[in-house]
């Protein structure tokens, strides 16, 4: 029995041999790098290069701002007075863009004789008639040119003051569109004013609030915002924060050359700014009540 067990023991303890591991060469042949991998290998920083799919932009010309809404940075036109509320004495068609003067020049004929093309004087009112594509008179108008940058959008803006009938306004607008303008998207005049630096975001929002205001208090609050009330507060807080940071960093760099900073004065300024922020938050809640109103049962 012992002899039989001794013969079977090697077979019971046998294990299959481990597969041989392939050794990698110390210097493997490099794989071809892609365009972006080559750029990353050649750059010592982690800044990625520009997208290779887009054509290289010319350094001499800056790309025009995006106006959103599918619109293009061309000349826009729209009726800026209300429609559908019955006939009114006056209605306004507004144009804004680099070709606003040229478009109006194809539609407007001044009453005074002057050589073509029409050359307006900024912020001077002119009387004349509006013509369609067939050179037929469609309305008597007053034209108010406001050349850049002294305009609402900081572009060339021309307003045609027509008779307030919806039919007259739509005919003048159609003539402007046929002359080369495109129909403006909702709120695009204010959008251009914001993108061109004429208004900041808080002022642009208050334009909409003023238009939709349903009370005198709401209108006064929105008008104060348009005139820069909230924006002035934000700019003041920002400048004071920068001033405090400058004082602290200056003493870190030039500790031996400047007097020590008074911590009580520093805390006092910070608490004062915090209080102004809290007051602004409380005012924001009040403005929401002015906008939505109170429901009395």
TrEMBL record:
GO terms for molecular function: GTP binding; hydrolase activity; identical protein binding; metal ion binding. GO terms for biological process: tRNA methylation; tRNA wobble uridine modification. SUPFAM superfamilies: Folate-binding domain (SSF103025), TrmE connector domain (SSF116878). GO terms for cellular component: chloroplast; cytosol. Keywords: GTP-binding, Hydrolase, Magnesium, Metal-binding, Nucleotide-binding, Potassium, tRNA processing. Residues 201-295 form the MnmE helical domain. InterPro entries: GTP-bd_TrmE_N, MnmE_dom2, MnmE_helical, TrmE/GcvT-like. It is found in: Plastid, Chloroplast. Its main location: plastid. Residues 47-71 are annotated as: Disordered. Residues 75-198 form the GTP-binding protein TrmE N-terminal domain. It comes from the Eukaryota. It holds the Pfam family TrmE_N. PANTHER family: TRNA MODIFICATION GTPASE GTPBP3, TRNA MODIFICATION GTPASE GTPBP3, MITOCHONDRIAL. This is GTP-binding protein TrmE N-terminal domain-containing protein. It comes from Aegilops tauschii subsp. strangulata (Goatgrass).
């Amino acid at each position: 029995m012992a002899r039989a067990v001794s013969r079977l023991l090697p077979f019971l303890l046998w294990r299959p041999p481990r597969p041989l591991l392939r050794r990698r060469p110390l210097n493997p042949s490099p794989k071809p790098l892609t365009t972006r991998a080559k750029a990353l290998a050649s750059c010592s920083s982690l800044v990625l290069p520009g997208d290779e799919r887009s054509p290289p932009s010319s350094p001499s010309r800056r790309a025009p701002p995006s106006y959103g809404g599918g619109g293009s940075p061309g000349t826009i036109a729209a009726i800026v007075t209300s429609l559908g509320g019955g006939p009114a004495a006056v209605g306004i068609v507004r144009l804004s863009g680099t070709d606003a003067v040229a478009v109006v020049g194809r539609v407007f004929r001044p009453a005074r004789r002057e050589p073509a093309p029409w050359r307006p004087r900024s912020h001077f009112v002119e009387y004349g008639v509006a013509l369609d594509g067939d050179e037929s008179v469609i309305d008597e108008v007053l034209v108010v040119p406001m050349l850049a940058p002294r305009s609402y959008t900081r572009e060339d803006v021309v307003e045609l003051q027509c008779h307030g009938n919806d039919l007259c306004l739509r005919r003048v607008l159609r003539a402007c569109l046929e002359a080369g303008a495109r129909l403006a998207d909702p709120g695009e005049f204010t959008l251009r004013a914001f993108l061109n630096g004429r208004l900041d975001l808080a002022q642009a929002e208050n334009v909409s609030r003023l238009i939709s205001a349903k009370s005198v208090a709401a209108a006064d609050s929105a008008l104060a915002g348009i005139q820069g009330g909230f924006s002035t507060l934000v700019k003041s807080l920002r400048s004071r924060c920068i001033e405090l940071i400058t004082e602290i960093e200056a003493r870190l760099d030039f500790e031996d050359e400047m007097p020590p900073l008074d911590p009580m004065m520093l805390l006092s300024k910070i608490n004062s700014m915090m209080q102004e922020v809290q007051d602004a938050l409380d005012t924001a809640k009040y403005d929401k009540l002015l906008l939505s109103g109170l429901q009395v049962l």
